Amino acid sequence: MANLVEIRGLRVAFDGMPVLHGINMDVAPGEALGLVGESGCGKSVTWLAALGLLPSKAHVTGSVRLQGADLSGAPRAQLEAVRGKRIAMIFQDPSSSLNPVQRVGRQLCEALRVNRGLTGAPARAEALRLMDLVGIPDARGRFGNYPHEFSGGQCQRLMIAMALAGEPDLLIADEPTTALDATIQAQILDLLARLRRETGMAVVFISHDLGAVAQICERVCVMYAGRIVEQGAVTQLFERPRHPYTLGLFEAIPRLYGPREPLVPIPGTVPDPRRLPRGCAFSPRCAQARPFCRDERPDLLDQQDGRQLACAFPLPGADPARADRKEGVLQ
């Protein structure tokens, strides 16, 4: 089956400062793809660039294709025909995305007018159906409420409803559970999984929460310093991570079972894009690094087990002493 979206050689620079360094990524129809990594690794920038949503000072090169149609440098009219209708995006802070002085029903109807040409009674009926679909209680009674009259979780549900208004082929969920408590996070993840099953749309789930990724995704890309360092099936990477950075993300997960132990954080921070190491960007933080790693940058290469990996000295597999942390994530 042909891919829904193909990204090739995507590079982004702000005022001459590179922040993405040749991203290659595919999304198949109906697939759930996770994109993980620390803040500042380029997860959100990748998809903002793909949709042409970065500010004018951003210099973007590379190819982004939607079912064969090239979106790279496409005119505004072509991109507007894609945004919302073919590819929709929801963000981690719904309070900044909803208009605080407009009733939520009006905002939903506006999305339906723009994306599907619905107005009047048909738009209202469809807006109420979407509110019911995403689990807003008493949709008819709350149609005329303002955003501040909804909880954070309900506002995120409203944002999902607005994203669904265009019946998109791909939904990009950019850390949609970050500002929510654990119970509401679980509800939103269950909602996204259910909507994907019912509508057949693909989902790109951007997150630093490995547990959330394990819950709804089939495949995962691990990003670091503007590059993909490992990608493959979720069970494959979570049970047997081979890049030291991927393993470091798991090591930082609190233990769910057994005696308490101090967390094992990854030392240091994501490097400043203006001062990237000459070789592997992760080498200053990597316990496995050798002199070669500080001089040579590894390419992302296909592995015999089907994953892709960018590491000159990959790990043989998961550390059995920490296996309980991975099992806790996958449950």
How many structural domains does the protein architecture include?
A: 2
Rg, rounded, reads 21 Å
Distance between the termini: 30 Å
- Total number of strands: 12
Could you estimate the helical fraction of the residues in percent? 25-40%
The CATH architecture of the largest domain can be given as 3-Layer(aba) Sandwich
Q: Identify low-pLDDT runs.
A: 318-328
Sheet with the most strands?
A: 8 strands, mixed
Q: Kindly report the CATH topology of the largest domain.
A: Rossmann fold
- Helices, by number, come to 12
Principal-axes shape call: globular
The structural class is: alpha/beta
Q: CATH homologous superfamily name of the largest domain?
A: P-loop containing nucleotide triphosphate hydrolases
Strand content: 15-25%
> Strands of the largest sheet, in order across it?
6-7-8-3-9-10-12-11
Order of helices and strands: EEEHEEHEHHHHEHEHEEHHHEEH
Q: Please tell me the overall pLDDT.
A: 90
What does this structure look like?
Its main location: membrane. It is a peripheral membrane protein. Keywords: ATP-binding, Cell membrane, Membrane, Nucleotide-binding, Transport. An eight-stranded mixed β-sheet has the order 6-7-8-3-9-10-12-11, sandwiched between helices. It starts with a strand and ends with a helix. The model is unreliable at 318-328 (pLDDT under 50). A hairpin with a 2-residue loop joins strand 4 (58-66) and strand 5. It has helices spanning 43-50, 76-82, 104-116, 120-133, 139-142, 152-164, 182-199, 210-216, 234-239, 244-251, 291-295, 323-330; strands spanning 5-14, 17-27, 32-36, 58-66, 69-70, 87-90, 170-174, 202-206, 219-224, 227-233, 301-302, 308-309. The chain is α/β, with parallel strands linked by helices and 331 residues long.
